[in-house]
Amino acid sequence: MKQKSQKKRAHILVAEDDRTHQCYVESLLQGMGFDATVVSNGASVLDLLQTAHFDMILLDCNMPVMNGYEAAKKIADMRADGRIGDIPVIALTANQQWGDPEKCFEAGMDGYIAKSLWLPKWKPRLQRMICQWLPLSIVAPHNDDGGGEVVNPVAVTKTKELVGRKFRALIEVFLSDAKQHIENLKHLAQNKAPAEEAVLHAYALTFSSRQVGALQMARIAEKIMRRSSVLSKKNEDCSIFLAEELPDMERAYERTRVSLSDSIAAS
Length: 267
Prior knowledge:
Blueprint: E1 11-15, H1 19-31, E2 35-39, H2 42-49, E3 56-60, H3 68-80, E4 89-93, H4 100-106, E5 111-114, H5 122-133, H6 136-139, H7 153-163, H8 167-190, H9 195-212, H10 215-233, H11 239-266
Parallel strand pairs: 1-2, 1-3, 3-4, 4-5
Helix pairs in contact: 2-3, 5-10, 8-9, 8-11, 9-10, 10-11
């Protein structure tokens, strides 16, 4: 009997010194189907990165021994010189105060979540952040459809109500333009084009996908947009990153095309 192949589970490294928060985040991640390793300071993060692979790092900003900002700067150096891969680093901030995002991004982090949003808003925020930065193949390890809801039926219904008879034409235009943006991104990857050129295509794809409720495509496009923006500031090309993400985008596009075509048929 042929055994079913197991999909890779994302491994997320959490740096948090508060033991209650440690238990909460670890339980949350494991409940979502991910592996989690928890440490209590930034120095331990750097030590683990020398010997183990992680797909994402959640980094508390205020910890003893080495805080999150200092650790993030050292992780950015490790990414820049190739000692580790391009692992997304997400800040865990105590409060969502003015200036917090700027401090996080200046330190080299890719995003942030305010811990003041704990329950009930924190779990969906964490899920969106993970979907934004990690490949679909490891975001939904127990889901064979490859990564959550393809389209938002509520958004599709609202779009139908808004445009009326033009719904079919709108969806056809969206699918045509989206396919062209994906082809353009593939061309940029093949030609090792500057990352800033990918930002515009990913930006357009992100917001047009949101407009018609194409959630899966919007998540991937936004991830490409944000990562390309980071790479562009370093004057780097986006070929390796795009080569990793575009297969997921093409699969999401095909699922979206089928789902929206069904919506047209039902209208």
